[in-house]
# Entry
Amino acid sequence: MKSSVIGQLKRDRVFLLLLAPVLVYYVLFKYVPMFGIVISFMDYNLFKGIAASPWVGLKYYKQFFENPDALVIVKNTALLGFYKLLFGFPAPILLAVMLNELRDRMFKRFVQSVSYLPYFLSTVVVSSMLVMLLSPTTGWLNRLFQQMGFPAVNFLQESEWFRTIYVASEIWQQAGWNSIIFLAAMTTIDPQLYEAARMDGASRFKQIRHVTLPGISTAVVIMFILQVGHVLEIGFEKVFLLANAATYDTSDIISTYVYRVGILQGSYSYGTAIDLFMAVIGFALVYASNKISRKFGETSLW
Amino acid sequence: MNNRTGLFDVVNILLLGLFACMMLFPFVHMAAVSISSADSVVENRVGLWPDGFRLDAYAAVFQDNRILVGYRNTLMYVVLGTTLSLLFTTIGAYSLSRRNLVFGKAFMLMIVFTMLFSGGLIPTYLTVRSYHLLDTIWAMVLPGLVSSWYLIIMRTFFQGLPRELEESGKIDGLSDLGILLRIVLPLSKPVIMTISLFYAVQIWGNFFYALIFIRKADLFPLQVMIRNIVMMGQTSDMTTSSAVGDKKVVLESLKYAVILVGTLPIMLVYPFIQKHFVKGAMMGSVKG
# Structure
């Protein structure tokens, strides 16, 4: 029996009615801004609006490519993402492997609970903590340095420290939480494999190497590909809160730059052009990584 | 079976113990400094254990109107935002979980696309501005009303419910809406609990929306207040407030007290709700 679209609409009317407000939300707050992208091809003026602002073609894209800042902020964004991936990706795997080796259930649960906690702190709180603990005069770390006879370091004012601080604090906040998925993958490993390995006289390291790690390899590969896809998506809040003019040569990333020139200085068209340029690259990365991860497992974003 | 505790176990336990200490250290240190006496803080004597016991810093914090206003605003945003977000996410997920929903594929594509691509900061700002939402409560609630990610998690959960339930509801004469309210929702308590907690934590910590959408100080959420006090050093009226009188409150103790007061709610409820969060992480990974 072939039902017509009208028949289907009638059949599903309650569902469509429930869905309608959600779709309205998506249109108003997701799709309307998407069409706002056109202002990157205009000399947008807040008072004239989109209709009356003149078209200028690729003027603002050219301006961005010719701006020496462009290379710096693209490089900073990519490097921050790269280092976060390089150090932040293995951390939860290592943690999960170590937790998996624990035999004391109580202690395991304690370490797990404690390790998830920082994930739920707000970025403002974490950044505030960093500012205080890293303060050159009153911060705990610098006091330790001084007691050991080293000079104090003004961590947040020196650009060579920014990436280290950012990546380390991200690991502190997320390693525990991200280990959950790997621990879950480990529970699916057949205990008989460990038993067989022990029979063969495999050491604990060998058991990890030949049973645990192969057992979670699919999860590792999928997570890695997905994270590569999101490598350019660096949270705005933490970078914005920890960066300052003294460290801009390493700490200024695309989103903070767009915020400054766009919202603070009012160069709406220019800011939008930069954002769009990066969004297109980001889209390609995420799309590709999802396609590839799909090949490795049946799981993917959709 | 080899069950004795060897060198491997000892080292492993030590390392993980050290790791746990690293996670907890900042909190213990902040708490110690915030309740230590002014002199010992100035002389840098406080490490993990308080030196002297003074609650002056907390007295100063609770005298500061900004903290109270921030708390009030944040609670308002969390309650309003979580309620609305949960409502919209649930009805969206339920509709989209229906098999063969007319145009269902197109609607899903429309939602998933927004996870990959967005208009970006400035068009979003200008859009919210054009709706006259700047400097209103709604600017903190509406732009992030539905998280596509949570919507998909919930939809997956609904799809996993046995089909027979729906059919038995139909036989009992329930309408489509009745099935949602009487059968689906009661069975979905865990997923609803988890997702509302995620929304609540997200709204609680949201600084970004406040930064771009809110200029009026009496609408600032707690996060903005914490930033202003701790990171921008707007503390002058706190250290000189009459409540503290001539007692000396060290800036450092004061700032740590502000941070801890801002973290307290999550720290207090965390042990009880932790398992819901973990469940959420698993739900996310089913499809992630």
About this structure: The domain at 55-287 of chain B is CATH 1.10.3720.10 (MetI-like fold).
